[in-house]
Amino acid sequence: MKKPPYPHPVIAREGWPFLAIAVVVAIVVTLWSPGVSVIFWLLALFVLQFFRDPERVAPDGEANVLSPADGRIVAVEETHDPYANRQALKISVFMNVFNVHSNRSPVNGTVESIAYFPGKFFNAALDKASLENERNAMVLKTDSGQTVTAVQVAGLVAKRILCYAKEGERLYSGQRYGFIRFGSRVDVYLPLGSRPRVAIGDKVSATSTVLAELSS
After folding, report:
1. Are 161 and 178 in contact (CB under 8 A)?
2. Which of 184, 194, 215, 216 does the annotation list as catalytic?
3. Is 37 known to be catalytic?
4. Higher pLDDT, 55 or 78
């Protein structure tokens, strides 16, 4: 097991403004009505848990494809990868509002391309969300020359996809590269021949769960 470098606060910076507003409102309402303020403190607690961003330990294995997000597996299928123009194994992770929404690189590799696509905001658990919702696709080339695509997909209430990776940048497996606010999905496209290590319905954790093993 290895612990990837993770120089980030436990509460994601993306959530600091939301948390500050929620706490200030809760304090003001407390001064007015302690009873009513319970609702606002619960809201602040929800914001706090939504933007948590814990450090994770990654399993050993050069061929491992790590989960880029916390959530539940909603797809394991062979399909077309429109971002790398190939047939691929797609594994999709659906995040609800109670999951950690920090996104992490599934493999060691170099960013070949990043493309943003505006779109709709269907429920991210639906298959059509992969191609019709707002999304951001990142294509990675691993050290062994294999292509792995990670796609951040907005959901029903997700209104902001954040991607900090740049073309030509090298990412390490488990490295934080983005965030999606309020419910979403991440699709991972892998070379055919990759061996899935998860099934539909499985709960997964970013970095610490192995989605699949790349073929040698």
Report:
1. yes
2. 184
3. no
4. 78
* Nearest-5° Cα angle at 129, 87 to 191: 20
Contacts of 126 (CB under 8 A, 6+ apart): none
User: CA angle, 15 as apex, 179 and 128 as ends, to 5°?
Assistant: 35
Residue 209 has pLDDT above 70, yes or no: yes
Collapse the DSSP code of 16 into the 3-class scheme (helix H, G, I; strand E, B; otherwise coil) and give the result: helix
Condensed to tens digits (0 to 9), the pLDDT of residues 110-145 reads 999 999 988 776 666 667 767 778 889 999 999 889
Residue 158 has pLDDT above 60, yes or no: no
3-state secondary structure of 18: helix
Percent of the chain with pLDDT over 70: 91
Let me know the angle formed at the C-alpha of 71 by 47 and 15, rounded to the nearest 5 degrees. 25
Q: Measured between alpha carbons, how far is residue 182 from residues 76, 88, 201 in Å?
A: 23, 28, 21
Task: Work out the number of other CB atoms within 10 angstroms of the CB of residue 120.
Answer: 11
Residues 6+ apart with CB under 8 A from 66: 58, 59, 104, 105, 106, 107, 173, 174, 206, 207, 208, 209, 210, 211
Rounded to whole angstroms, the Cα distance separating 205 from 216 reads 25
